[in-house]
Structure formats: C-alpha cells, structure tokens
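Lecture notes, unit on binding sites. The following record was shown on slide 14. It pairs a sequence with SN-glycerol-3-phosphate.
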Amino acid sequence: MKIFIDTANLDEIKEASELRLLDGVTTNPTLLSREVERTGMKPDDVLKRICEMVDGPISAEVVSLEAEGIVKEAKELGTIAKNICIKIPIVKDGIKATRRLREMGIMVNMTLIFSVNQALLAAKAGATFVSPFIGRLDDIGHTGMDIIRDIMTVFENYDFTTEVIVASIRHPLHVVEAALIGADIATIPFKVIDKMFKHPLTDIGIERFLADWKKISKK
Ligand code: G3P
C-alpha cells in the first residue's frame, strides 16, 4: 500500500519525508489555509516546497465549481511543479473538467467521495485517484471502510486503473483496515503516522535491552 501524508504543514512533511516512506501528499483548502496562516507564505509557495520535498503526486485542490474555472485553476496549479495532481470535488462540472484534464495528461484526484456511485463516475471520467472520506462517514454513523471495499470490487470488476486513496483517516486502525482490504493508497495525517510506530511493548523491550547491556558494560 502506498502511503501519502494528509497535511500541508511543511514541518510535518519534512519530518515524515526523512523516513523515506512517503509516496505522495494530499492537501485541501482547509489544510493549505492553515499552513498559509502559520507561516505567512503564499499558497503556491507552500505547494512548491511540498513538491520539492516529496517525489510523488502532490494533490492541490481547486476552489472553482464550474468546468472552465476548474480547468483554468488546474493549469495554473500545474505550473508550480510536474508532480502536482489536481484535486477536484465530485460535481458534474468536476467530471467534465476531469475528462479534459486527463486528455491533457494532467493527474486528477476526485475528492469528497462518499458513495460507490460517485467513485464509479469519477473512474469513468478517467480520474487518476478517488478519495473516499471514511472518517467523515464514520462521524455520521456509517462504516466508512465499507465503501472502500465496495469501490475496490467495482474497480476490479471493470479493470479501472483509477487508484483508491483512503482519506479522512483518523486513527491507526483505519490504516490496518485499509491495508487488509488492499486499498491502493492511504493518506494519513502526521499524528496517525507517528502513532503507527508506537507500541508499549517496544518501549519496554528497548528499556530492558539497554538496562541489561549497561550491566555488563559496567563490569
Ligand atoms: O484527505 C481528506 C482529509 O483531508 C479530510 O480529513 O479529517 O478533515 O475528515 P478530515
């Protein structure tokens, strides 16, 4: 499973990229505006820095909701770096824009996916990625991971090459479930990546090994 980080925070991306486990980055207007406020940088400069740090698709989201505007924004975002992937919400004009951008060879990540039908339409339009938001489905009493399983099945049934990005991940168990289903990608917040390393028995084990080693080194 490929691992993307779901943040625009440059410090988090730097720290995570040093692990050399990252295959890409996803941002959204909320995450990017947070980083602009934190650093005082311009949005395009934040995205440029991210593209320099991570060798993989970097999703940058459009704010237009009509096809012409989406394509125009996408072209502008595309000038930032070669690895920019255009994130577009699943609306009718987003689908029209996706088809046009894919014909131009521009990667598209279709976002705010909450149903199998939305993912099917995105795949038919040629989206490179779909991003179902599982945490937000969990929030309203659904089992978000169920749609990942179903989308994977539909894509397999018809040999769609669109990859599934499990998004809106809230805890390490979401990552385990995504991997068990065989999802292509999980986009994970920094805090959750951090938690994936941790186990109390690992800490206790290290402590004991070091204490035992200290005993003989004193002799
Ligand atoms: O990639 C999608 C993500 O940014 C949304 O996550 O936690 O705001 O639902 P969340």
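Take-home: The pocket of SN-glycerol-3-phosphate is lined by residues 6, 26, 28, 131, 133, 135-136, 167-168, 187 (CB under 6 Å).
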